[in-house]
Design a protein that fits this description.
This protein is mainly alpha-helical. The chain has 13 helices and seven strands. Helix 2 packs parallel to helix 4, helix 4 packs parallel to helix 6 and helix 9 crosses helix 10.
Length: 380
């Protein structure tokens, strides 16, 4: 029998051996997206895992690993223009900042380690990057900013907006303006999301749209189905796979925000019934059928088991018709670790097309309490 924190400590030791001299960690390729990633993302994830392992063990070398990782993020390699973080290399049509989410991940580590150590340079850098991003009060959302400071359109990916808002809340203790923007975003989020089916949030959305604009979009969609049914069907399948594969990641971002605001709810009970409970219930009901199995964006990329464990711990489980064990955080965590953690290498890198990314994403478990893992082969 082993525990979650034993896995975290074991992984930190393995990660320390992977860390390069400049403090960076091996880059992945953004899972199924196959982007030309820089080390920024993985380095940020590992910084949080190193910090947690140091708090658990007091090991100086692990403390130094966390420091080296965060110091790398402050260097010109990570922010070549002194603006946003360079998360993707040139060579694709995509932006180099990786939208809002690339910045949220980098900032997350600086806020986490900076807060734990009361280290102002990390906090200052995080706040500066968050403030670079324009917030539109009329549409209740942020625009991404390219690494040279160039403005990009308003981000239309719901999970990216949620995670960026959660980081603004994290920074809210030091920057009241960021907190107010985040609270405004969350107040309006329930009205902005759209569902592909009961409980499944559409991956892309357009905050601040009017009823007339939504109606025109619906009419356009119907016309496309008539004009090109096969292409419309393929796009629909992709949207369903994306939405299902990212749903736990979306909920994890909401749970981070809910944990930060404490007894003050992000929105009222009516919105909980419309948004939260159907979304959590969707994944719970899918559990007996292997929730996310075969989805390129779940388990082996977005660590669905870790994310659902945190979501259930913070937000709780709705009274949905689902297998009772699906309401247990341990059930989800055990599934993730059982299928993907390699106790020999000490890394969460099994059963994935991007071992570097999944190994780094064990850091998401650092927000969980320790628990026993009664798993076959768990012999650290």
């Amino acid at each position: 029998m082993s525990s979650l924190y034993e896995a975290v400590i074991l992984s930190a030791a393995a990660g320390r051996r992977l860390q390069l001299a400049d403090g960076s960690m091996p880059a992945g390729h953004n899972g199924p997206w196959h982007d030309l990633d820089t080390p920024v993302r993985t380095t940020a994830h590992w910084a949080i895992l190193f910090q947690k392992a140091h708090e658990l063990t007091g090991e100086p070398s692990i403390c130094q690993a966390a420091t080296a990782a965060c110091d790398y993020l402050l260097r010109s390699e990570a922010r070549p223009y002194g603006m946003t973080f360079h998360c993707r290399n040139a060579g694709s049509a995509k932006d180099r900042c990786n939208g809002l989410i690339g910045q949220a991940w980098a900032v997350e580590s600086l806020l986490s380690v900076g807060r734990a150590r009361c280290h102002q340079p990390y906090l200052d850098a995080a706040i500066a990057v968050l403030r670079l991003h324009p917030y539109c009060p009329a549409r209740h959302g942020w625009s991404a900013v390219e690494i040279d400071g160039g403005a990009l359109p308003l981000c239309r990916t719901v999970n990216q907006q949620v995670w960026f808002a959660a980081m603004c809340l994290e920074a809210g203790d030091y920057a009241a303006d960021l907190r107010e923007r985040a609270l405004d975003f969350f107040r309006h989020l329930p009205a902005a999301v759209r569902f592909l089916r009961t409980g499944l949030v559409q991956h892309s959305f357009d905050p601040g749209t009017t009823r007339g604009q939504r109606l025109r979009g619906w009419v356009y969609g119907r016309m496309r189905k008539v004009a090109s049914p096969s292409q419309a069907a393929a796009e629909r399948r992709m949207q369903v796979e994306l939405s299902a594969g990212y749903q736990s990641f979306l909920l994890y971002g909401i749970a981070m925000a809910a944990a930060r605001v404490g007894p003050n709810p992000l929105w009222g009970p009516r919105a909980d019934r419309r948004l939260l409970w159907p979304c959590i219930g969707y994944l719970m009901r899918a559990a007996p059928q292997g929730a996310g199995d075969g989805n390129r964006f779940a388990w082996g990329y977005n660590p669905l088991g870790i994310e659902m464990a945190y979501v259930l711990r913070v937000l709780g489980a709705p009274s949905a018709k689902a297998e009772p064990r699906a309401a247990s955080p341990q059930y989800w965590l055990h599934r993730q670790i059982e299928a993907h953690f390699d106790w020999q290498s000490g890394l969460l890198n099994r059963g994935t097309g991007d071992p570097a990314i999944l190994a780094a994403r064990l850091y998401e478990a650092c927000r969980l309490d320790d628990c026993e893992l009664t798993l076959a082969g768990a012999t650290p």
